[in-house]
């Protein structure tokens, strides 16, 4: 996957701007607050339906404007040219993919894959389970075609059961929706378990390069109920009285989590902030590598403010891993990260100042 052109309108500091990206590394520099991170936000918005900083209506639209606009042209590994345009006002949105109007943001997310490492990414390790569920489900969305139908089926049944619980429960209806919830939940869990297992080889390969102190790593799915003891249907039945008191469903795949076991380091609660960042980056790159292995296309890789997130030695390791991948990479910072030029690879340079993007004088390399 190779992005050729990104055009922005009415997004944060940018009234209107355009950037033509190159294969390999693209370095975007600028002072703090200059708007360089906004370029990554725009691509993340198309690929995830939201910015990694939050919702569109939480300040992404330029002050005084009704809606932002993002337009992207890219090429697939097979050489096909694609394009997408999105207008988003925070509540209502319109989008076109390859000239055709689309009705679901998921269609955009399916077409354009972007993996972003940013200052909040450590939450993938030391944050709540919802962050890790989103990580799993985003990856499955791109590699497992049966995932979304089961996810929607489960979400609908969960909504219905919760509604009935708040109303005090109606025996026949509650039985019916619990049956539907259990069937969809068991299938969703099976798909997640397969996906977690498929990530293990890539993570085992990448983690020693980024966090060698960890030694070996094992990851496993915590399904959201005691699955080794009983099926989801029985678990829901046994928890019904408690759930009626709570007014919501207390167990199931919507409470699932991802467990890490590091051979030579403590569990995720005992890691330093730096180690959590390195593990989070390893998880993201393993997911990207798995997507490339299954689909043939590397996602776009984005590293926001890498220089402030990792020390010079770890920056060098990260850049070496990315250089070997062959993926298109966007890196932001107030200056070039340590070791980027010494890689001996072409680097396209851009500078952002006062909402204006200027391209560097060609390529720089070691």
Descriptive notes:
- By secondary structure, this protein is an alpha/beta fold.
- It folds into two domains: 1-113 and 297-366, 3-Layer(aba) Sandwich (Rossmann fold), CATH 3.40.50.300; 127-271, Up-down Bundle (Glutathione S-transferase Yfyf (Class Pi), Chain A, domain 2), CATH 1.20.1050.
- Helices cover 42% and strands 23% of the residues.
- It has helices at residues 36-48, 105-111, 123-126, 129-143, 147-166, 171-210, 232-238, 240-246, 273-295, 306-309, 312-325, and strands spanning 2-11, 14-20, 25-29, 68-75, 81-88, 93-97, 100-101, 114-117, 217-222, 257-262, 300-303, 329-333, 347-353, 356-364.
- It has a six-stranded antiparallel sheet, with helices on one face.
- Strand 13 and strand 14 form a beta hairpin.
- Helix 6 (171-210) packs across helix 7 (232-238).
- The longest helix is centred in the middle third of the chain and has 40 residues, at 171-210.
- It is globular, with a radius of gyration of 22 Å.
- The model is unreliable at 362-366 (pLDDT under 50).
């Amino acid at each position: 996957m190779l992005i050729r052109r990104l055009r922005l309108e009415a997004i944060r500091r940018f009234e209107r701007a355009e950037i033509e990206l190159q294969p390999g590394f693209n370095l975007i520099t600028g002072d703090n607050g200059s708007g360089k991170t906004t370029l990554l936000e725009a691509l993340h918005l198309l690929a995830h339906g939201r910015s990694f900083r939050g919702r569109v209506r939480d300040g992404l639209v330029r002050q005084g404007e009704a809606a932002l606009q993002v337009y992207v042209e890219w090429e697939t590994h097979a050489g096909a040219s694609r394009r997408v345009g999105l207008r988003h006002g925070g509540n209502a949105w319109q989008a076109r993919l390859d000239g055709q109007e689309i009705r679901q943001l998921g269609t955009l997310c399916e077409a354009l894959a972007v993996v972003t490492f940013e200052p909040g990414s450590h939450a993938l390790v030391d944050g709540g389970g919802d962050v890790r569920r989103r990580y799993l489900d985003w990856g499955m969305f791109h590699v497992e075609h049966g995932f979304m139908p089961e996810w929607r089926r489960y979400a609908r049944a969960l909504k219905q059961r919760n509604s009935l619980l708040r109303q005090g429960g109606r025996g026949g209806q509650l039985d019916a929706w619990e049956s539907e919830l259990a069937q969809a939940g068991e299938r969703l869990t099976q798909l997640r378990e397969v996906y977690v297992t498929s990530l293990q080889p890539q993570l085992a390969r990448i983690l020693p390069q980024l966090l060698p102190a960890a030694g070996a790593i094992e990851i496993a799915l915590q399904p959201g109920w005691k699955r080794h003891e009983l099926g989801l249907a029985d678990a829901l039945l046994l928890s019904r009285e408690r759930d009626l008191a709570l007014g919501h469903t207390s167990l199931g795949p919507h409470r699932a989590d991802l467990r890490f076991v590091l051979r030579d380091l403590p569990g995720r609660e005992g890691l330093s902030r730096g180690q959590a960042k390195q593990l989070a980056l390893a998880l993201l790159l393993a997911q990207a590598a798995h997507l490339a292995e299954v689909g043939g296309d590397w996602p776009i890789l984005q590293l926001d403010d890498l220089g402030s997130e990792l020390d010079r030695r770890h920056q060098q390791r990260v850049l070496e891993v990315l250089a070997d991948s062959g993926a298109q990479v966007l890196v932001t910072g107030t200056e070039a990260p340590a070791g980027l030029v010494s890689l001996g690879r072409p680097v396209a340079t851009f500078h952002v100042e006062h909402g204006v993007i200027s391209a560097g004088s060609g390529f720089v390399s070691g």
